[in-house]
Write the structure tokens for this entry.
Amino acid sequence: MAKRKAKGYSVFSLLRHALQPEKPWGAAWAKPEPRSSYDVIIIGGGGHGLATAYYLARNHGISNVAVLERGDLGSGNVGRNTTLIRSNYVIDGNTQFFEHSMKLWEGLSHELNYNCMVSHRGQIVLGVSPVQMDVFARRGNIMRLNGIDAELLDRGEVQKLLPYLDYSKEARFPIWGGIHQPRAGTVRHDAVAWGYARAASQLGVHVIENCEVTGMVMDDGKVTGVETSRGRILAGKVGIAVAGHSSHVAKMAGLKLPVESHILQAFVTEAVKPIVHHVVSWGAELFYLSQSDKGGLVFGGHIDGFNTYTQRGQLFKIRDVMECAVSLMPFMSRMRLLRHWGGIMDMTPDGAPFICRTPVRNLYLNGGWCYHGFKATPTSGFTFAHTIASDEEHELNRCYSLDRFEKGGELDDYGIGNWTYKQ
Amino acid sequence: MRLPCPHCGERDVSEFRYGGDATRVRPAHGTGDLKAWHDYTFTFENPKGPHTEYWQHVLGCRQWFKLSRNTATNEIAGVVE
């Protein structure tokens, strides 16, 4: 078993490069030509695919692995999310999974020898009615029973921490209090992709960019490789980790998934001085906001609501999210929006993901991430690597099977029902 | 995105409610085949390309209609009879 940690960056290498500017830093990960075959191919060079490859090599000693990325590394959802991490879930299966991920985040920069800028600034979800405060108390109790940090805040305590919210009598949704997870926070998302790519590459994994999978090579009902834009590549096992394109790639192997692709938009304002020191979420609508290290307010809301693969969002949803922002934080009405963008989410009927074997032999699925993909990245890779290496689910992803709807095992954390576009 | 309502003409998408894939066929009542019901309820074609779907002009004439839209580009091919 390879248990080697990534290395190479240290205060000494920093000093050496500072003193020798004529010697530039080497590339963070190798750019090899694809071999004709691998033990494992991971389709998708996003956070989840790269993390899977890293844990395959580090935890299971399988380093004859290729990660095939259609575009450039990190150009998909790993670079399009709002960078939040938290583990405030209610349902067994989700709670333990996301808390494990939180613990991996805590040591990730050290593990990868790459500064992921993990910031435990805390998340506060605001309650806007007494009933919602009861729901938060229940959620907090469940979290604490699972060893997760949670504090219930009353209105006065919230006002001390977040003095810039609308506490006036005219507020459409009066703030009754909140639930605080101090260990929640943000992570620099690009660094997660780059760090995992570099660490996996050091362990012998091939990270192959600009290599689009166009078909599956099948033999007697099992997958034996993939057709790509750079030729046929054979593999003992193939893992899918392509987020919004899960249905599209699974269809190449004849699978129809409980997944529908929807666009989720995100926004960033011009940079201002530090004002928002936490991740702030709202109980009245799906709205979440944090301030980046550059100073911009980064925020997002709900999906647009109809299935699409275009990464261009609709104006009406931009307006909805801005209304949330100004309603909760009136000072934002005078700020300018700097950029907005969209990513394609693989929405599932219960809002929970799949990390599992599939009915097709040698084919494994990691998808259906809905809103939760980024915060799950480390444990998603950790458990998917386990599932691929040992051909069985880890206890942490036991609930994330493809047949859970047949067996009554929905993980409907938000109590919404089987609607992909309402999760 | 603007959608062509068969009664009111072209209007902004924000006036409409989405109703999902219009090509799904509900299994016959009384069939005990759970697999067929599972597939109908939980799985999606989710094509990257042409898609026939329901929309309702909920802030207009409230008519339901079928529309052909390309999910890769959001190009509208038109109302499907």
